[in-house]
Structures are given as C-alpha cells and as structure tokens.
UniProtKB/TrEMBL annotation:
Family statement: Belongs to the glycosyltransferase 8 family.
Residue spans crossing the bilayer: 20-37
InterPro entries: GAUT, Glyco_trans_8, Nucleotide-diphossugar_trans
GO molecular function: polygalacturonate 4-alpha-galacturonosyltransferase activity
Subcellular location: Golgi apparatus membrane
This protein's name: Hexosyltransferase
Signal peptide (residue range): none
GO biological process terms on file: cell wall pectin metabolic process; guard cell morphogenesis; mucilage pectin biosynthetic process
CDD domains referenced in this protein's UniProt entry, alphabetically: GT8_like_1 (cd06429)
EC number, as in UniProt: 2.4.1.-
First-level EC class: transferase
Keywords on record: Cell wall biogenesis/degradation, Glycosyltransferase, Golgi apparatus, Membrane, Transferase, Transmembrane, Transmembrane helix
Amino acid sequence: MRRRGLDFRRPVRKRFPNVVWWTVCGILVLVLIVVLSREGQIESKPTISRKPYRRDRIMEGVTVTDEMLSSNSVTRQLTDQISLAKAFVVIAKESNNLQFAWELSAQIRNSQALLSNAATRRTPLTVGESETAIRDMALLLYQAQQLHYDSATMLMRLRAKIQTLEEQMSSANEKSSKYGQIAAEEVPKSLYCLGVRLTTEWFGNPNLQKKHRERKQMDAKLKDNSMYHFCIFSDNILASSVVVNSTALNSKNPDKIVFHLVTDEINYAAMKAWFTVNSFRGVTVEVQKFEDFKWLNASYVPVLKQLQDSETQSYYFSGHNDDGRTPIKFRNPKYLSMLNHLRFYIPEVYPALKKVVFLDDDIVVQKDLSGLFSIDLNGNVNGAVETCMETFHRYHKYLNYSHPLIRAHFDPDACGWAFGMNVFDLVEWRKRNVTGIYHYWQERNVDRTLWKLGTLPPGLLTFYGLTEALDPSWHVLGLGYTNVDPQLIEKGAVLHFNGNSKPWLKIGIEKYKPLWEKYVDYSHPLLQQCNFH
C-alpha cells in the first residue's frame, strides 16, 4: 500500500494527559467554595458585638462567665470564700458563737456587694478593689479553722445533730401514738351524759319499759327470713343510732329492715330507752346484751378463757410499757372485748336466720342496701370488699409468716378484705363449722405469735377460701385516718370511718364529719341537754 506524501497527511491533535485536566477542575472547585464561604461569613456577622473581656455561658440555668471559671479570677476567689463562709455561719450558730457568726455574715454581705457592683457596671473586678475584701474574709476563714470549723468537724457535728433529731422524732412519734390512742378511746362527756340520762329515764319511766315489752312481743319480723336482717355489736348509743337512721333514710323499703343490736350490761338500759323512744321510718330494732347468752362462757369461747390467764391479764391490763417493744395499740384491751369477737358467733346469736349483713358502728349508709341480700356468694360464707392494692393489705401484712403454721396454710400474697360491712350466709357457715375454725386458730395464738391484735387477722384465717369479693362501691374505707377520693365517697353505699379519727370525737377529720353528722338530730331534747353540737 502506498503511503501519502507528507503534504497530504492529516494534522496530528495535541492531547493533554487526563491527570492535568482533573487537577485543573479540582482547583477551580476549591476556589469557588472558598469564595462562597467568605461571602456567607460576611452575611452572618452579628450586628451587635459583645465586649471582648466577657463571654457568658448558660449552664443549668445559671449564667457562668469565663472570668468566674478562671483559676486566677478574683471573682471566683470571692465566690468560693462566700460559699465556705456560709457553711461556717451555720456551724458558728450551732456552737452558740453568735458574735463570730455575725462577723462572717457582715463580711459575706461586703463581698456580695462587690460582686453585685461589678455585674452592674459590666466590668471585671480588679485585684486592687477586691484585695481588702479577700484578705478580710481569709482572716475570718482562718479563724474558723482555728475554732475547729473544718470539714471533718462539720461532718461529726452534722452526724451528731442527725442522730439527736432522729431520737427526738422517735420519741415524738411514740408520744403521738400513745396520746392518739388515748384520745381515740376516750368517751366524750356528751356521750357519757346521754348514757346516764337514758338509763335514768329507763328505770324511772315504767311506761317506757311497757312500750318496749309490747313492741317486742308483737314483732314477728325478728325471725322472718324474708326481711333484711342487719346486726350491730356496740356499746356506743349515738354511733349505733346513726347506723340505723342512715340505713332507714336511704332504704326503699324501711319497713322490711330489722336491726339486731347487741350491747353490754352497762349500756343495755340506755340502748333500750333510746330505740324505744325514737322511731326510724318503721325499722324494727331488737336490743340484747351479750351477758344473757348462756353459751358464751370460758369453756366454749377461747377469748374468755385467755382472759383468765395471768400472763394475758398482765399484758393487757398491767400498764407496764414493755420497754417500748410492743406498740400501745397492740396492748389495747378492747381487742379482747366480746363485742369485738361476737362477729364469729353470729349463727349462735341468731339461730333462726339464714342471711345477715354485719355492720360496724363507725359506718354511715348512704345507699339502699337491699341489693346485698340478693348477691350470690357462690357457696362462700363471707361477702366482703377486698382491700389489697399491689402488696398493700395482703395476708403477709397481718400475719406472722415466720411461724410454720401460718407459712404452711396460707398464701402470703392472698388478698385481704375488710370487716365493717359483710354479708354472711349463715346456712353455709353452720355447714362448714366456721366458728370451729375460728376457735382452732384463736387457741393457737395464746402467746400472740400468729398475729398481734384485732379481729381482722383471725377473720382472714377463719374465712380463708370462704370469702366472695364484692364490688368496692359497697364499702368505702379510710374516712377515719386518711384522704379518700371524693368520687369513691360519692359512689359508696357504706362509708367506713375506720381508724382513730372517729366522727364523734374532737380528733375526727373535719371534712368528713358532715357525712356522719347529717344523720344526728341535734334538736333532740336529750342531745341538747348533753351539749351535743
């Protein structure tokens, strides 16, 4: 093949290497970025500049300056001195060195004034103007150290003070518990007066006794199981009257209600007089005294047998303080009262009845209770409102689970329930010999090792597995010791003033007293004569 001559060949193009091209492009991009960033900085400059000597920072809501953070700053030195001096002022006052405390306080005010002036004029403190204040404060702090106001002494004194305060608090709590218990157990003069006047009226008025006998003979409702039967065991005339009156006033059929009231020998005449003189919308009221129950004796009832024991008598009645090992509330003789323990003998007290609603005397009824008698207990003996919330009011709060008998028979997390408003199926009670179960556990607690006090712990043991939970609105507790949700109070059928602050006492919770007092007729002549108001 013939090659073209030189004159006829195409001209050759000159090519730059790829590396050169990429380098040029990169330089251009960098130049563009630099130009744009400088323009952005010019546009974003603030219009107001801060003074060069100070830059504020916000740390946890407190303005802290670089000047204060500097280790060589006189402002920081003054601030540290003030903090230390304030601690020494407290210790000086504790040591009754009031003159030195006054000198420290005066110097603190001087140093604070310097700092305030510097902040106001927005210029830092100079060494010259703060030198005197720093020197004077340093001398006082040195003097404080010579008086042994150092950190170690401060800690020792604070520990001693804390220990003293704890001892005082413990003593105050113990006294408060004792005085509160005494106040809760006192019989108000007006209540005592009412009992005396009613007793006098009963024995001095034959017509009143005749009226009572006639009413009792004519009343066939006492054993009629189609009626609504309620029982109260109490020695408090006015409290029992409020229970009866509030039940009657809120009942749809008061003529179908029968109250069986058991009291003691002392209050028997007064109770009969009160419930004979007053009528409660046709409600039938039967009054008995437990001394008339011949079967209620020491050979049958463990509590009465225990009362004959010298050790038990010493524990409850000797008045010895037991070196403070046992709280006073655990040694209250009322917990051995038959009026408290009679609730475990309801089938014996009312042998003809099949179903009874038990009410404590510190409750108020504000709804119709006839619905309680149609509740199906599903073969259980006791219908009650449960009180457990998480771990609170479960069995382990009432019983001694270090005892093998308790540990072997009862779930510690079982839910507790409340006495005060209980539906009892007396047919099932008799069938299951529930009173015998109660006797078994009461006899094994002679030494008070299974539980300490009250009728609720033996009730929890006796009715274990025999209790049907009721709707909480039937029984609202706590009005005698704590705050209760107003909505619960409004919906509650029975309000229970359990606790020391009973509504008829001066220590009653004021905001809850009207709920109880509205069922007391203060215009009654006997109440006026005894200064009830």
